[in-house]
Amino acid sequence: MGHGSPSVARVPVRGSRVRGLMHGLAVGEVLGAGVLPVGTLPHGVATQLACFTAAASIRTSLRRSVNGTADARADLLEAYLRWARTWTAGASRAASTAWLDEVPLLAHASGDAADTVRGLAVTGAGTRRDPVTTSAGWHALARALPLAAQVGRDTTAAVEFAVDSAALTHGPRTFAPTALAVLVAGAALATGDVGRAVADGITEAILRGVDFAAVSVVDDAVRAARETPASPVVLRAGAPDDSAAATLWGATYCALSHPQGTAAALALASAAPHPTAVSCVTGALLGAANGDDSLPQAVLTRIDLAYVVERLSRDLARDNRANPDGSWGASDDPTWRVRYGVD
User: Fold this and answer.
1) Model pTM?
2) How many C-beta atoms lie closer than 10 Å to residue 325's C-beta?
3) Does Hydrolase show up as a keyword for this record (predicted)?
4) 231, 225 contact by CB (below 8 A)
């Protein structure tokens, strides 16, 4: 296994921040959609996809611990294909291999994800060397954010998994923004400070050879937030579309404009031309830095999928926490292997 850099390596994962990352993504997506009816709030498709990413991440970790080897790309692809069956007319559900397959809310499409569905329709899906689409959309970035929980354990693996996740269905323009977003979110989990997290994420990205164009995007958002914070006009200019790069710019700008005020940052994100994208990622970044208590509780507790997000968040935190004997997670617990379908 690789080792992270000194800024993020071997940092204990705080459960409240992992929960903040996952719940923040879900809350941000709901708020960005702009419809808050009375009662239960339906979750968004990026939240669905992020749940499958989290489960795949845990499954890969368990397989590596139990069997000594694992294929992260294969686990991610299998997870997304299981998700995609809900989009295929007349498709029957596959036999259950893990608890996530038994969640009724995940058996129904929850929004538009045409780029992801199109990429998964190609046999074998895409790779970073042989992409199957040219899509630059934000779902590639958002769905990879749960991989940030791995950054403090193995930064190299987290970055590789993030790029592989994006490459399965999206084009090369999503690869670097997705990797950088995961690095920033991972640093937020470690530091509890979104400003420092952005700086650490940029440093890590440069050291790891992430495409400098993506680094420049975030650096520009940092400059804009410093010079003209909390401006809807500046936000609209910096994040004009729903590409992964523009979404990362917008989320960075909103988070740095209100580093301690998650509600204010999400309100600013709603002014973006594509508010669901920017709000979703903003919520994840600030939730990772400030914990789940910083999120609007009146929204969080009403999201229909909140109980699933909570369970996955706790399992992600446990899986990426070192044990006294040097092992990781709960791989010695047979109930975990059953939970995530690992023989």
Assistant:
1) 0.93
2) 7
3) yes
4) no
Q: What is the 3-state secondary structure (H, E, C) of 40-97?
A: CECCCHHHHHHHHHHHHHHHHHHHHHHHCCCCHHHHHHHHHHHHHHHHCCCCCCCCCC
Read off the tokens for 294: 């910083």
Is 82 within 8 Å of 88 (Cβ atoms)? no
Question: In this structure, how many other beta carbons lie within 10 angstroms of the beta carbon of residue 193?
Answer: 16
pLDDT in tens, 90-101: 444 555 567 888
Domains of the chain: 15-339 (1.10.4080.10)
- Hey, which residues does 243 pair with through a beta bridge? 137
Residues 6 or more apart from 301 whose CB is under 8 A from it? none
In whole angstroms, what is the distance from residue 214 CA to residue 164 CA?
17
In this structure, what is the dihedral angle of CA atoms 133, 136, 142, 148, given to the nearest 10 degrees?
90
Per residue in 285-322, pLDDT (tens digit) is: 999 999 999 999 999 999 999 999 999 999 999 999 88
**328: phi then psi, degrees, rounded to nearest 5:** -125, 145
State whether residue 292 is helix, strand or coil.
helix
CB contact burial 37-57 (16+ within 10 A = b; e otherwise):
eeeebbbbbbbbbbbbbbbbb
Distance CA 268, CA 253 (A): 10
Residue for token digits 């690869």? 175
Q: How many helices (H) and strands (E) does the chain have?
A: 16, 0
